[in-house]
Amino acid sequence: MALLNVPHLWHSLPLAELEVGKQFYWHLGNFNLHGQVFLVSWFVIGLLLIAAVLGGRSAQMVPAGFQNFMEYALEFIRDLAKNQIGEKDYRPWVPFVGTLFLFIFVSNWLGALVPWKLVRLPAGELAAPTSDINTTIALALLTSLAYFYAGFSKKGLGYFGNYVQPVAFMLPFKIIEDFTKPLSLSFRLFGNILADELVVGVLVLLVPLFIPLPVMALGLFTSAIQALIFATLAAAYIGEAMEDHGEGHEEH
Amino acid sequence: MNPTVAAASVLAAALAVGLGAIGPGIGQGNAAGSAVEGIARQPEAEGKIRGTLLLSLAFMEALTIYGLVVSLVLLFANPFA
To answer: Which residues of B touch A226 (CB under 8 A)?
Structure first.
């Protein structure tokens, strides 16, 4: 952090600090857990649970109020999954894709909208869980597991036929792709969210009032798009794993 | 930190973002230009074109972000420090 040391004057402002790579460690056996990530993740999960319970508590045929909103969210996610996975197989994957989208979206926005800096931790600071690379890698590996599971459950060992599908010499590239998919998924999300937070942080250091607002709005926009992209790509990978190459293409 | 390593890391971080921004910049310009052309030719398809454009812009942006991740690693979690 020595590289971003700013003139001493600014350290008196509680809102203008940049911290990267400082964690609020919890020790559990031999593991060091990043406590601030867990705290905000639990908050996000709690919020989503409350929203789900409120939306579904007294479901009616003609939705009103909050149920309307939740049904809109569900329809959005269902269309996303249907577009990427296809009419026939999308239904079992709606919960997975929806969980990814909602968790990433809500954590990105809460990280930007809630004034977490007001809560003082012994070390590190509260921020969006997705600005910690461990969270995004976990989500990306889950996606990997999901598309392998989708492929194997649909085609059994025939799934390996995908690896030589258009031509046989694609095999090494397809194998490399299995590693680059989670890598690019996790880095894209992590980099975008951390970059947003850093840009806002640097601007707040320079001019604490009003000037960072447009950048914050842009950050909200990009983080929403990143949540959409993560969910879309996860669904696309699952759809790709389940795709039929065999006898004859049925028309869509 | 060894001053040579520090200097090299800062330089490399700047190059990683700076050079990494060139390609996606050209690509995003091309994509946006084509999208405007498409909208001008077929204004009724504007909504669909805009959605696709935003999604693909974010993909191109990801390439710069990879450079940014590398430079962040060099600045804050330097393995050679």
So the answer is: 58
